[in-house]
Write a structure and sequence with these properties.
alpha+beta; 3 helices
């Protein structure tokens, strides 16, 4: 009886120490981002006694000074077992948003979460991201959605500088104006290998290691009658400019142009010239 009580007290002490250390580590990470010029604000708390460390970020705001992209979320959670802190589950809220100086995109889903497995020195070993019933609604008037989006990565080298990425999306819907049209449905798939100038770790996220090479291995978008396929290898120089050969295959360029124009990616004034140029290919 006394032994059981002593073990319970020791475990409780370990948990409260670990929870405090977890909260402090997250707050230090946010402070490191602020030191690097980011806006990084959140109220951080850790619960989950007795077997988990569940850390909540309430009122989260992250703003990247290099891109001027701002992410806001009412709350996001990281979940982990107290005895296995190399595996983290990340859970997003039902609604959050990304903003730039000219546009805000509201993001909604019925379920959005990621599984992160770390190797030594908090380097990403493998990750899986899944979103169900994903919707994107822009302040510029367009909207898009996916019934299911899945992305997986895995580390390919010991240093953590080369990663393979696989992407799949089912039930894609795009609406240039107003609500998403359920009849406009397609699929997305892709696989790529990305090399970075430095290991990809939690500590390096704020500095974003530069991409040095990208190998696209058949990325495909099918949307109604539109069928686009992309593959190729690119090297990225120190100036950030990629060079290499990329092959883009399509069934109908007209449909691709119409889609890009409807989303605002191509100004309407340049559409005639774009059509004439493609007719020469």
């Amino acid at each position: 009886m006394l032994a059981s009580l002593a073990l319970a007290v020791l475990w409780a002490g370990y948990w409260f120490w670990g929870a405090s250390a977890r909260t402090a580590a997250v707050e230090d990470w946010l402070e490191d981002l602020r030191t690097g010029g980011w806006q990084a604000e959140a109220e951080v708390t850790t619960g989950g006694f007795p077997n988990r460390f569940d850390t909540s970020f309430e009122g989260l705001t992250l703003a990247d000074p290099r891109t001027n992209i701002v992410w806001t979320a009412p709350m996001i959670q990281t979940l982990m077992l107290s005895y296995n802190q190399d595996h983290v589950i990340l859970v997003w809220p039902a609604e959050h948003a990304f903003s730039t100086q000219s546009e805000t995109v509201q993001i909604g889903s019925t379920d959005m979460r990621a599984s992160l497995v770390f190797a030594e020195e908090t380097a990403f070993d493998r990750t899986t991201f899944v979103a169900e019933d994903l919707t994107l609604t822009s302040s510029e008037g367009w909207a898009a959605g996916l019934q299911r989006l899945q992305l997986a990565t895995r580390r390919l080298d010991a240093e953590g500088q080369e990663h393979e990425i696989q992407l799949s999306g089912a039930g894609i819907s795009i609406a240039p104006r107003g609500a998403i049209q359920t009849g406009n449905v397609g699929n997305l798939s892709g696989r790529a290998t990305i090399a970075f100038a430095a290991p990809v770790t939690m500590a390096s996220i704020g500095n974003r290691p530069e991409i040095t090479a990208l190998d696209l291995q058949d990325t495909r978008l099918r949307l109604d009658d539109l069928d686009l396929r992309l593959a190729g290898e690119l090297d990225v120089g120190a100036d950030g400019i990629p060079s290499g050969d990329v092959t883009l295959r399509r069934e109908d360029w007209t449909k691709a142009l119409d889609l890009l124009a409807s989303l605002g990616a191509i100004p309407e004034a340049t559409m005639p010239a774009a059509r004439r140029g493609l007719d020469l290919l």
